[in-house]
Amino acid sequence: MPEPSNAISTWQTERQEVIPPMEIILHEQICRRLISSRVYLINAATISALTGCGIFEIKKHVESGELLWAFNFSFSQNSAEPRVHALRFWVEELAKPVAVKDFTVEQVVQKVLGTMQANFSPGDICRRFCISKVQLGQIRRKWDLPLGKIRRESLADFLKARWTGNNN
C-alpha cells in the first residue's frame, strides 16, 4: 500500500488524466438544483466547486475561449487583465455549452436580465450577478449610477462593456 502522501498525489494525477477539467459539463437539471434559478452569473469559486477545476485552470479556459460567457467585474488599476475572482460566468454555459456557444452578447444579456423587468433593486442585482453590496457600490461609482433601483438599459450596457469577449 502506498504512503498517504503518495496516494494523494497519485489520485490527483489519475483524476486529471481521466477527467479533463472542463469536460465535466453539468446537466441542466443538476445545475439548477445546485444554483438558484434567480442567479444568472456565478463566480470562479462556484465553478471550481461544481467542476473540480482550479481557479487558474478556469482562467485558462476563459483565455482560450472555451468559457466564452465571462464578464469582468474588476475595477482594479489593471482591469484589462482581471483577477479570476472578479470574473462572473453565465450559468447556462455550464449547463448547455453547445446550445449557447453561438449566442451574441445581446442574446446573453437578454437572458441574464430578462425582458419584462425595467428596473432592478440592489438586492436583485447582487443575487443575479453573485456580487456583494460593496461590489455593487463600485459598479455604481464607476458607471455613475444612481442609488436605488437601476434601469435595465444601464445594466445591459455594463454587461456588454464588461464581456471578456470585448477584451475588457
List keywords for this structure.
8% strand, two-stranded antiparallel ribbon, 168 residues, mainly alpha
Written overview of the protein:
The protein is mostly helical and 168 residues long. The protein has one domain (24-166). 52% of the residues lie in helices and 8% in strands. The chain contains 10 helices and 5 strands, in the order ααβααββαααβααβα. The protein has helices at 4-18, 28-34, 44-51, 55-64, 91-95, 97-100, 105-113, 122-129, 133-143, 152-162; strands at residues 41-43, 70-72, 87-90, 119-120, 150-151. The strands form 2 sheets. Strands 1-3-2 form a 3-stranded antiparallel β-sheet. The termini are far apart. Mean pLDDT is 76; it is low at 1-24.
List the helices and strands and how they pair.
Blueprint: H1 4-18, H2 28-34, E1 41-43, H3 44-51, H4 55-64, E2 70-72, E3 87-90, H5 91-95, H6 97-100, H7 105-113, E4 119-120, H8 122-129, H9 133-143, E5 150-151, H10 152-162
Antiparallel strand pairs: 1-3, 2-3, 4-5
Shape: globular
* Uncertain stretches: 1-24
The biggest beta sheet is recorded as:
3 strands, antiparallel
What proportion of the residues form beta strands (DSSP E)? Answer: 5-15%
Helix content: 40-55%
Q: N- to C-terminal separation?
A: 50 Å
Count of separate DSSP helical elements: 10
- Rg, rounded, reads 18 Å
Class of secondary structure makeup:
mainly alpha
Order of strands in the sheet with the most strands? 1-3-2
Question: Quick one: how many beta strands?
Answer: 5
Outline of the structure:
Helices cover 52% and strands 8% of the residues. With 168 residues, the protein is mostly helical. Helix 7 (105-113) crosses helix 10 (152-162).
